[in-house]
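Async update (no meeting this week)

Hi team, since we skipped the sync, here's where things stand on the single-chain job. The sequence we agreed to prioritize is pasted below, unchanged from the tracker. I ran it this morning and attached the output directly underneath so nobody has to dig for it. Comments welcome in thread, and please keep replies under the output.
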Amino acid sequence: MKHFVLSTILLFIFWFAKAQIIPGGYAEDNWGNRIAIDDSIQQKTTVIIPFSTSNCGYCLVDGYFTETNYIEANTANGGASFHQCLFNPQLDIYAFTKHFGWKNPVLTYPPVLYNIHKGGFPNVLAFKNGKQVIQDYYNYDNYPVLKKALWDSGQYMIPTGNLRLANNFIWENENFDAVVVFPQGSKKDSQLEDIGNRNKSFTCKNVDSLSSEDLRKNLMLVGQFSLPDLADFFIGQEIPLQFSDKNLIVGNYSFPFDSVGIYIWFTNPFNPEKYILLDIGNGNRRIQFSEYLDFIVYSGSDSLNYKKLMYGQYDVSDGKSRIVPEKTFSDTELEKHCFKQCSIPLHKNASDHIERYETIPVARKITENGEQWTISSANCRFPDITTDADNNIWVTYEENGDIILLKVDSTESHYIIESDESDSYNPIVVSDKQRIWVFYLNNEDSYYRLYARFLENNNLSDKILISGKEPIDVNIINAASLGNEISIAWCEWKANLRFLQMCTISNGTLGNVLPINLAPSQYAEGYSNAWYPSLCYFSNGELWGAWNQHYPGNFCIIGGKIGEMPQPVTLSAKKMDDWETGGYPCIFNSRNGEKSVVYESNGWDVIDKKAQTIKISIYNEELKKWSIGSVISDKRQTLLNETPVAVSSNSGQSIVVWSGRPESINSVWGIYISINSGDKWSHPILISEKDITSRHPQIVYQGETNSVWISWHSGNGENMKTEVIEISLNKFTGN
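Output:
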């Protein structure tokens, strides 16, 4: 990725009158709150950090860095600070804010905001005195140049994790701002020297030949360093390592230095604006991907003997990089390496908010489309809906970081799934023959993990951990059921890589966690970035899935039978950039039992004055391929269309619901429905209130009444509520 020096940046300085930025001068955050962005640009130094629709590694791996060094720094200097993501759905954006700990608003509307950076999603955009001073600046390591363009006061760069980002500062800076350091007297690696010179990123030197100028650069220590040499190099410096006669001390744990390898980054004590990276194997070899970590102590030289003795991530809550128990892990008995007081990891469940939910406000009304319930009153987000064996309708949702389960049309039947000091989001509700299951993400031990609770005979189970205990966040979950079997899928985030995992619960027994086979990347070996899974059981008992994947196409959809090699749902091509772009799928049993996927087309189309659409693709059993997607939404009705969900009825109808937004300046998101009763889709009908923002629909079919029940959240900001409507298919289709 090319770097631009200050002279290049200044070529992209623009002056915008208020009307030239956004018609009306307003933007919206992820919750529909209006932001006077034009006023901000004219009155304050304004920093905007966009992130990519395709969620590529370059746009996400620096999330911690840009939050600390641009967003927080600009706010501290009196500026206005924002993230920006114009075409991703709310839940996807919400997951980013949870993962990176972002607190500032995310600009999500209008699409014209794209004009301030054109041609991709760079890391930093900035305005000062009403002028755009940074537009197409892609990298993060030339901080001295950018801080001069932004702030008049002294501002210092703060190195942030993880190992992936620390490596980027060594390998990709293109201005020889790093030194790869070898032990005294050892031979330097000629291949490394060639790479450093070719990329203009680093030089190679022995430790005894480092100058004072070298010490102030990013440093990477490699090779067979002795323990005394390391101790001498860092003598008197404050780093997260200590050295004894024979042992390496990491946090409160001690390891015999000559028998372990260490891979760790920390702030350069000779220059706190730079990184130091230690990659010292001592005859051991790292086998597993570890760049999502901040540190790892390991042993073994092959996959059979490889062990991660100690690994994890720093706690940076106080501005320092500290090794803490709740973010430290081991594949072995870490306690035997403890040489100090080793405390027990803390959990965020000190107090409960259950008194908030003694009663749940529920309002009921009759609309032209059916009977509708408005549930609760504040901060309700991302509801999900299901029906049980007795045809009761259940809805679950997040409220203020807590999870509620409610039986619709029964004001006394509500259950508090989680309501302590920890944070939860993205609840999913699924029913088997005996139980109501609620799956959700919770961060009680500093990471968002997948948990479940089930309701059986009006008794709520204890919390069950579904995902593993690793220093990673889980995000975006989905589940499906067939009889007494439930399968659940989720995404695990590791630096700039994301993987899909799943497990099955049969008759209440939790199975093993297994990876979901992804389509192989044709353009970047070893790169895995898949998210937003959707699962569906078909009548023959087969479990199928569909999901987003970055590579083999830029932003494509992959789907197929779980356990087998999946196929592209969006149209493939020889070149990655020529693939059809689409995302956020829902796989379902469509009319006549066909395997179908509904999805949204490329949101970027609106930049070229083309409406984003909702499409459906059907699997061809003979050809073993997905059909070309056909359009369901009406381009004249809505400009933006997102997150479709779908079910089929007993009579062979297919019902698709999504969130759409018209083109007019003062438009709001609404919930639209379309039904296929033959070979033609009905014209979409708005089923939410016309002037109230409504997004994230979910749907379930109730066979006893031949109706669909649809949930969504409505309103803006703190006023968001959960909505549920019952729509009779007999009445809706005129049958």
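Quick observations from my side:
The longest helix spans residues 63-76.
The mean pLDDT is 91.
Reply here if anything looks off.
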